[in-house]
Amino acid sequence: MKRLTLTSVFALLFTGLSILSLRGAEPELDLAPARWIWYPSQRTLSNTMLMLRKEFTLDSVPEKVSGWILADSRYRLWVNGQRVQWGPAPADPRWPEADPLDIRSYLQKGKNVLAAEVLYFGLGDGTSPIGKPGFICKLEVGNRLVASDSTWLVSVARSWPAGQYKRHYVRAFQEEFDANRYPDGWRQADYTPGSEWVSAMELGGRADRSQLATDYPEYLQDYWASNRDVSRIRPRSIPLMREYWVPVSKLAESMWLTWDQDPRTYFEMNTPHSYRADRTPCAVQENDSTWSVVASDGRAAVLTFELGEQVVGFPAFTIDAPAGTVVELLTHEAHEVGGPELLNTHFNAWSRWTCREGRNRFEAFDFESARWLQLHIRNFTGKVTVSGVGLRRRIFPWPHDPAIRIGDPAIQRVMDATVNTLNNSAQDLIVDGMGRERQQYSGDCGHQLHAVMGTFGETRLPRRFLITYSQGLSSEGYFLDCWPAYDRLARVMQKQLGLSNWGPLLDHGVGFVFDNYYYYCQTGDTTHLAETLPRLLRSFDYLTTLMNPADSLLPVENLGIPSVWIDHHGYKKSRHKILAFNLYVSAMCQYALAPLCELTGRTADAVRARAFGEALQQACVRRFWSPERQVFVCNLPWEREEGETRYHDRDLATAVLFDMCPGGKTARSVELLAEEPAEMGFSYPANAVWRLWALIKANRIDVVLNDLRTRWAGMESVSLNNTLQEGWHAKPDNREQWSHCPIAPLIVLQQGIAGIRPLEPGYGRFEIAPQPGDLTDAAFTVQTVKGPIDFAVSGKRGNRRLSFTVPAGTTAELVLPAGEKVPFPPVASEGGDGLQNGLQDGVGRGLSDLLHDGQSGACRYRIDGGRKVELRLRHL
After folding, report:
1. Residue 331 predicted with pLDDT over 50
2. Which residues contact 517 (CB under 8 A, 6 or more apart)?
3. Quick count: other Cβ atoms within 10 Å of Cβ 783?
4. InterPro entries, alphabetically (predicted)?
5. Which of 102, 123, 695, 711 is 20 to 30 A from 656 (CA-CA)?
6. The domain 243-395 is classified under which CATH number: 3.10.180.10, 3.40.50.920, 3.10.350.10, 2.60.120.260?
7. How many whole angstroms separate alpha carbon 583 and alpha carbon 657?
8. pLDDT in tens, 794-811
C-alpha cells in the first residue's frame, strides 16, 4: 500500500534536483573520531530530554582549546557548572551546522566536565522540519582529544516528561519541569553519577554525515534517508548569538484565582469558565525586584510583569516556595491591564514548573518573543517569594551598532522600533516573527536582507539565509516558501486531501531570486551561487511549465500543491493577482535571474530567462494595460462583469520600478500610489516597501515621509512594544504578531532619504541621490562592504547642509534633485583650497561635473573615495 506520509514527502527532498552538483560548494566537517551517540534504545519519544556527561582531567589549561558540537534537536551546554551556549542554529537536517566550542575560559586545572542537556523534538517545529535523535561532539584540548563515544555517560532527564505533547502547530515543545526530579549538581565536576547513568550508545553512521544518515530508527514518522551520501555536516556559518539579561520593568497587576476545574485540564484543553477571578492585588513588593504572596485558602496567585519593550529570549525567574508549588509561566506579545486574567491567548505560550522546597531558579529551555511575563502560582500554602523575573535576551552579534538620529520625533520612534524588530526577527534565521512561527521566508520577509546589510553591516547572516532557504527546493521545482521549517512539509500532505489553502507560495520563490541578486549587488560576493543558482534555474524551469497558452500568462489558481499569495490585503478575488504575479515573474527573469546567469557564464540560460520575462510583460500589457487611463488595471478583463475598477499598489509599484508601463507612462500609476483611492488595494506592512520604493523612484518622498509619520508611527506596537506589528492595526490579548518583519522604514532611510545604492556590485562605485524632503535634521550611517557612509542633512529646502563620507577605494556619484544645487561651478580646485563659493578647505578635491540631466533637471557629480564631503544646497 502506498502511504502518503512524511516519509514520501521527505523522500521528495532527498531525491530532488536540489541536491545535484552541489558537493563541495560549501565547507564540510568531518568530526571523526567522534561518534554520533544517544541513550541506548530503539525508540525515542517526542520531546525527550537527555543529560550527557564527559569528565576529563587537565594538568593545566592549555592555550589552544577548540571543538564542535551538534545535536538534534537542541542542546544546552554547561562546562563545570557554567552555562556556555545553546544551539544549534536551525538548518536543513540534511546539512546541519555544527557549533564551534570556545570554552577555554570555563576550564580548570584538575577534573573538568562537559554537561549537555539535549532535547529531541520528534515533532515538527517552525525551527526544525524533521530530524532523528543524535549528539556528536569533538573537542581538542591542547594535545588531548575529547570526542563523543561510548565513554560518555547519559541519563534520561525525568524532570522533563518524555513523550510530552506538542505546544502548537509549529512549536514542538510544551515545557514541563519538576525540580524534585532534577539531579543536584550533575553539571559539576565533583558529581558522582548513580545507576541511572549508563554508557552512551554509539550510532551506526559517519561523523561527516548528519544525524539522518545514522542507523537509529525514527519510530514516530517512519522515514529514512534514501540517499545517505547526500547529507553532510557543515561548520556554523554565523556567530553564536549574543545573550544578556533583561529584567522586567514592573509588576503591572496581580490577582487571585479560584479554580472550579482542574487547572491541568484548563491548560491542556483551554477549557472556558474554569476559574473565578478576584482582582484584589495579591502581591506585595518587597524591593525593586522582589515580590511576595501569602495564601492560606487554596487560591492561586497571578502576577503579571511587563518588560520595557518586546524582546526575544529565555524567560526566567526565581521563586522561594514550599515543595510541590506549581508555577505556570505564560508569555505574550501584547496585553491590556484589566483584560484577560490569564495570558493563555497566544498559541498556548506557557510552560510549567514544579518547585522543590526552598529557592528555585527556573529558566525556559527554548526562547520566546514577549513583552509580558505572567506567573500563575498554585498548590501552595503560606508565603512564596518571587524575584529575578526577566528574560535572557538573544540577539545577533552585529558587527556595527545602528546609528540613527532623526529630528522628527514620530519618524525617530518608527526607526527605533524597526531596529528592535530586526533584532527580534533576524537571529540565526531571518524569520517573519518569533512569537508565532519562527520560520524563515523569502518574499515579504526577504526584504530584511537590505536592512541587515545596510543597518548593521552584516553579510554572513544574509548569505546563510540564501544557502539554507535554497535547500528547500522540491523535486517538482518549486521552493517550500518557509524553510528550514516543518510548516510546508505538513501543508503538502494537507493539500493532497484538500485540507489547506496554504501550499508552498510560488511568489516567495520568485522573491528569492531577487534576494540572491540584491545580495550580490550589495556585497559583490558570488560564492553562494555555486549552491543556489542551480536551484534558481530549476525553479525557473518549473514556472515556464505553468504558462497558460490561451493568454501566455501564468495562472494563480488551480495549481495543485503550490499556490500564489502575493498579499492577503487588497485583492477582492484571487484572479486579480494574475497581473501582480506575472509582472513579478517578468521582472525577476529580466532583472535578477538573467544577470546572475550572465555573471556565471550561463549565457543560454540568461537568454531563456530574459525572453520568458519579456513575453510575460507583453502579455500583461495586452491583457491588463488600459491605454485610455494609461495604467494597469488588475481586473481589466472582468471590469464590466464585476461592475468596478480595481487597482493594487503591488501591481502599480512593480510596473513603475521595472519600467513596465508602455512608453514610460508612469504618471497615473504614481498618482494612484500617492493618493490611495478607494479602488486601490493596499498591501500589508511587510509588503508595503514596494509602494514606497516606487514613490522614492518617482521623487515623491513627501508621500513617503507622511506615511512614516502617520501610518507607521500610528501602529500600536510602535508606541507600546517598540516594534512593528504584522498588520496595520493590532489588538492585545490575541494571536496577532506585535513584532513581525515589516522593515520598510530602514530601507526608506537608506535608499530613499539618503538615496544610497551600489552602481557596481560591492560598492566600488555607488550613488547618493538624497531625498530629505521636509526633514530638517537627520544623521545616520549606512554600512557597506567597503566601509560606512556617514550621512547627515540639516536645514530646510533652499538653505540646506548636506554631508557624507565616501569610503576609501570607492567612487560616489552624487545626484542632486531638480531645484537644489551647489551654488558654485562644479570645477575642482587643484590647489587644495577647496571649491569656490563655500566648500571647506580641501573638501571639493576630486569633485567633477559628470552630467546635467536635462529631463529631470538633476545634476550628477563624481566624488573620489577617502574623504568627507560637506555641501550647502541652495534653491534655484
Report:
1. yes
2. 591, 592, 593, 595, 596
3. 23
4. 6-hairpin_glycosidase_sf, 6hp_glycosidase-like_sf, Bac_rhamnosid_C, Galactose-bd-like_sf
5. 711
6. 2.60.120.260
7. 11
8. 999 889 999 999 999 999
The C-alpha atoms of residue 243 and residue 393 are separated, in whole angstroms, by 5
For 643: left if phi > 0, alpha if psi spans -120 to 50, otherwise beta; the answer is left
* CATH class (in words) of the domain with range 404-753: mainly alpha
765-875 — its CATH code?
2.60.420.10
Residue 249 burial (CB count, 10 A):
13
In 3-state terms the chain splits into helix, strand, coil percentages (rounded to 5) of: 25, 30, 45
Instruction: Write out the DSSP string of 719-758.
Output: HHHSS--SSSS--SSSS--SS----HHHHIIIIIIS-EEE
Cβ(847)–Cβ(860) below 8 Å: no
- Domain-by-domain residue ranges, the chain? 27-233, 243-395, 404-753, 765-875
The answer to whether the pTM exceeds 0.85 is: yes
Cell numbers that stand for 250 in this block: 514592573
The Cα 870–Cα 848 span in angstroms is 15
Cell 517550500 sits on residue: 480
Burial grade of 568 (CB within 10 A; 0-12, 13-18, 19 or more): exposed
- pLDDT one-digit tens code per residue, 751-771: 999 999 999 999 999 999 999
Question: What is the pLDDT confidence band of residue 832, given thresholds at 50, 70 and 90?
Answer: very low
d(CA 806, CA 809): 9
Backbone angles phi and psi of 663, in degrees to 5: 65, 15
Strand partners for 813:
767, 862
pLDDT per position as a tens digit, 709-767? 999 999 999 999 999 999 999 999 999 999 999 999 999 999 999 999 999 999 999 99
Percent of the chain past pLDDT 90, that is, above it, reads 89
Beta strands in 333-381 (DSSP E): 350-354, 358-363, 368-378
Sign of the C-alpha dihedral computed for residues 585, 589, 591 and 593 taken in this order? positive
* Single-letter amino acid, residue 822: V
**Cα 435 off chain centre by:** 11
Return the CATH architecture of domain 27-233. Sandwich (2.60)
